[in-house]
Amino acid sequence: MTDTWKTRTKLVHGGVRRSQYNEVSEALFLTQGFVYDSAEAAEARFLQAGEDEFIYARYGNPTVAMFERRIAALEGAEDAFATASGMAAVSGALTSMLKAGDHVVSARALFGSCLYVLEEVLTRFGVEVTFVDGTDLDAWRAAVREDTKLVFFETIANPTLEVIDIAAVAEIAHAVGAQVMVDNVFATPVFSRALEQGADVVVYSATKHIDGQGRTLGGVILGTTEFIRKTVEPYMKHTGGSMSPFTAWVMLKGLETIDLRVRAQAAGALHIAEALQGHPKLAQVIYPGHPSHPQHALVARQMGKGGTVIALDIKGGQGAAFRFLNALQIVLISNNLGDAKSIATHPATTTHQRLAEDVKAKLGITPGLVRLSVGIEDHEDLIADVLQALDAV
Length: 393
Known about the structure:
Helix content is 42%, strand content 15%.
């Protein structure tokens, strides 16, 4: 039935399983374990749990299952596995499918923790990783090999907002038999068409737009039922990175309003980007949804909208960026994004601080770069706040 529902209907009703009490709001099952009618029933469930049977919260839970089904319906995926954080989703998806001797090709422009997993963790266990400029299709073609197991990239790079052509990279990867895994946080599940465009696995930090209100950490891995249940689930349930029932309940509440929030945030981001074009104190305004973005046509084709995040390169470097940040009155200084509250981040000294200066320069993470995650506040108030903060620069 959900296949015929429109997005907002799926987000409110998808995946619901009601108890015998027929509650309106999804039930929160705060339990770590489940009781069996007999020893024989316990044995049978451990051999093969049914669709509506559970063993232990690390393996699965009714509330968590509701969240997994709802986000899978939104994404258009066969199945999903909910994790304790966004990085648990990234590291769990990567580690569960890779082994010593495997070759991975990854875009170079990644969130700092993703880089750490690829550069430090996977290579420590014998996985070979090749980094490329994600926007350069020739670089992808040159890097993939007959033995390449996986390609990995953020569909919109954090924090420079470069956009990678999912369909084109997927075609290159699939030609050598490699799988395609994408971190789709900046694209959001609302604007995502990653699976339709060739991705095999999609990961999200649910902490961002899915919760969207700064309450909990969470993540999710989406793909085929075969991959989720035969590859991801065994790894995650034994290594302990699964989502808690309470977090899943919060995420279900977040999904009810994500379409409304994200569309309002994207509209606000475009409005702000338009207002800041040509400002004398800005070296650059980067927003994928604005015609000035070098990949604007790709964004229109791939997502339809430009997302919720803007990058501002403030003239004068770190000192000017700090003066700007400290003068903000509505926008908060923090390191999250996708929140209902607008948040500004200085990546060079926070989320990407561990990177060497030459690497930051190569990625475009300048000392003056500020990442602005647009919330749901009034657009005009946000523009006024940003403009008065630029005056302080």
